[in-house]
Amino acid sequence: MPFEAGAKPHQRIPITAYVALGANLGDAKNAVLMAMNSLGSLPYTQETARSSLYRTAPIDSSGPEYINAVAEISTCLTAPDLLRELQMLELAAGRERPYRNAPRTLDLDLLVYGEACIQSPLLTLPHPRMNEREFVLVPLAEIAPTRVGAQLLAAVAGQGIERID
After folding, report:
1. Least enclosed by CB within 10 Å: which of 7, 75, 111, 150?
2. Superfamily of domain 9-163
3. Are strands 45-50 and 66-75 parallel, antiparallel or unpaired?
């Protein structure tokens, strides 16, 4: 286990995690780019890869088209601490949650945290719907091709995604 009980973040072995980024309100492209830049500024965290930006139609949501991406990070934060940091970035970007799947100024989803399998009221990892979303799998496959099989990509093909960078 990479985290020894009581170990401070700087004493832990870094974990590779993947974060999905999306926005469809305001300047969505800028919001996603700013959030990508902010990931490397989180405590004990370094951004190690980022996908291109993609334009997608809303799925199980409403409003304008989304701008989506995925980033790979290396972090010594625990998964719950990382989730809290991501939620603070969302709040700083003006994220509101008036109802489930509401349009958003910024959405950051922790997809994968090392090999962790977590199921709690706070956090489920791997993300329970990541394999159902082309807007997650296509950018994830771009930066971590061994994490996304051709079968998964084929199952979500046609949801509507366009690379924009």
Report:
1. 150
2. 7,8-Dihydro-6-hydroxymethylpterin-pyrophosphokinase HPPK (3.30.70.560)
3. antiparallel
5 CB-side CA count, 13 A: 0
Q: Residue 66: helix, strand or coil by DSSP?
A: strand
Indicate the pLDDT class of residue 112, thresholds 50, 70 and 90: very high
| pTM > 0.85: yes or no | yes
| Cα 103 from Cα 116, distance rounded (Å) | 29
Q: Picking from 9-13, 90-94, 123-127, which range would have the lowest pLDDT averaged per residue? A: 9-13
Per-residue pLDDT at 1:
38
Assess whether pLDDT exceeds 70 at residue 144.
yes
What are the two backbone dihedrals, phi and then psi, of residue 98, each rounded to the nearest 5 degrees? -70, -25
Residue listed under structure tokens 């989506």 = 68
Q: Strands 66-75 and 15-23: what pairing?
A: antiparallel
DSSP annotation string for 114-142: TT--EESSS-EES-TTGGG-HHHHHHHHH
Residues acting as catalytic residues: 95, 104, 107, 109
Cα dihedral across residues 139, 140, 146, 150: positive or negative: negative
Cβ distance 95 to 108 under 8 Å?
no
Looking up tokens 């949650």 gives 97
